[in-house]
Structure formats: C-alpha cells, structure tokens
C-alpha cells in the first residue's frame, strides 16, 4: 500500500504543476500582440507606400498642346481662340477663367490666333506661353498667359522695353531658341483660319455627350454662356450654329423670360 502511495502524485503536487504551466499562455498571447504591433509599425513607416484605391492620374490632362484648364472629365469644352496683343481678349480672359472655375461641367482649351495687325509681338508672346507649358505643364501655361495679359501694352506694342517675363528658366530659354514654339503657334493659327475663324476672342463650345458644337463670336459671358451650354446639350437643336455675343445674350434673356412665364 505504501508503494502505491509514493507513485501517485498528491492533489497539491498536481495543482502546483498546473500552476507552473499556466503562465506560459499569457506569454504566448503577448508575443503575438508584440509581433502584430511591430508589423503595423513597419507598414506605417514613412518609406512604405500607402495603398491607393483610385487611379492617381485618372483626372489629369494629357500633356499639351493643346493646353487645358479645368476638369479633365468635363462634359463641355470651350476652346478660346485668342491673341495675346488683343485688348478685347485681355479684358475677356480673366472673366472667362473665373467662369470656368465656377462651372466644373466645363473646361477651357487654348488656341493661338495671333492676328496680323498685332504681329510680330502677338506671336512672340504666344511662343513664351507655349514654352512655359512645354517646360512646366498646363497651369504654368495659363499662368504665363495671365501674366502676359496683365503686363503687355496691347495692340501690337508688346511688353514694356524694361520688362521681361519673370518665369524664364534654362529649359524655357532652350525652348525659345528652338523652332518648336513658332511651329505650334503658326499651325494653330492656320487651322483657325481654315475653319473660318479670323477674329478674337472667339469661343468654340463642344458638348462631348451630344457631339454638338457652337461658335461664339466676341466676349460671351455669364448667363449667355449657360444658354449656349443649353443649346448644344439639347437633342432638338441643330448642330454647328454660329452666334455672336449679342445673339447669345438675347438667347439668355429669352430663356429667363420663358422660365418666368412658366413659373407664372
């Protein structure tokens, strides 16, 4: 009987053995938590790229020319045929840019049209803007356009003799010394003339959805531009109409009156 008692562990010994094994489980759990924390920290290090769930350049404009301002996926495109020495263009440009910024359904596309009466300065300034775009992209192009309009004396006089565009870089100088900008400006001017466009400012409005277009002569603004959008968006309207600023404004007024009549 005594030998059997010595081979069987007592209840207190079994409890002590289990108590000795139990602390191992918290250590295992702690190890898993520490490993997970280290993995999370490594994932969040500055050198690790953050995951993206959308295309990074889905809304970017293709490299110019043509140079564009506004949403790349805009339904309506307003192509501005303009001369950098044209005083009417100079007055119209900031108004049109502000309108584009306020209407995300539309974007602006620039088209060089230096007029013979304003050359050679009109073409020279166009080459400066073209090289700014080539070197630094769409917004640099439009930034150069804004500066040139603000500082040129207009009517073919060009910039003051003691003033030069401040954005010149080595790349832009190299561009200006090449034949590329002059060829682009000349090609766009020739294309406009072949299309029957020989005055500035002129805006061609295109609806990417209906495929319809409208040519607007002169500085068309505000409600008249919205009415022009309605014209090309309507499936019942004929295509390829050409209207002046006064006609577009008249359409806007008639549209407002029609809306008031319906409301009454």
Folded structure, characterized:
With 264 residues, this protein is α/β, with parallel strands linked by helices. The chain folds into two domains: 2-43; 68-263, Glutaredoxin, CATH 3.40.30. It contains ten helices and six strands. The chain has helices at residues 2-7, 11-21, 24-43, 87-102, 121-136, 138-151, 170-176, 180-194, 222-233, 245-263, and strands at 68-69, 76-82, 106-112, 202-207, 213-217, 241-244. It has a six-stranded mixed β-sheet with strand order 1-3-2-4-5-6. Helix 5 (121-136) runs antiparallel to helix 6 (138-151), helix 5 (121-136) crosses helix 7 (170-176) and helix 5 (121-136) packs across helix 8 (180-194). The longest helix has 20 residues, at 24-43.
Keywords, separated by commas or semicolons:
2 domains, 6 strands, disordered N terminus, about 260 residues, Glutaredoxin, alpha/beta, disordered C terminus, 6-stranded mixed beta sheet, 10 helices
Secondary structure elements and pairings:
Elements: H1 2-7, H2 11-21, H3 24-43, E1 68-69, E2 76-82, H4 87-102, E3 106-112, H5 121-136, H6 138-151, H7 170-176, H8 180-194, E4 202-207, E5 213-217, H9 222-233, E6 241-244, H10 245-263
Parallel strand pairs: 2-3, 5-6
Antiparallel strand pairs: 1-3, 2-4, 4-5
Helix pairs in contact: 5-6, 5-7, 5-8, 9-10
Q: Specify Rg, calculated over alpha carbons.
A: 34 Å
**CATH fold name of the largest domain:** Glutaredoxin
Q: Give the overall form.
A: globular
Q: Helical region count?
A: 10
Order of helices and strands: HHHEEHEHHHHEEHEH
- Residues in helix, %: 40-55%
In round numbers, the mean pLDDT is 78
User: How many structural units, i.e. domains?
Assistant: 2
Low-confidence stretches: 1-22, 37-58, 249-264
Strand order of the largest sheet: 1-3-2-4-5-6
Report, as a whole number of angstroms, the end-to-end distance.
114 Å
Q: Which superfamily, in CATH terms, is the homologous superfamily of the largest domain? A: Glutaredoxin
InterPro entries: Thioredoxin-like_fold (IPR012336), Thioredoxin-like_sf (IPR036249)
Region (Disordered): 236-264
Pfam family, one: Thioredoxin_4
Protein name: Thioredoxin domain-containing protein
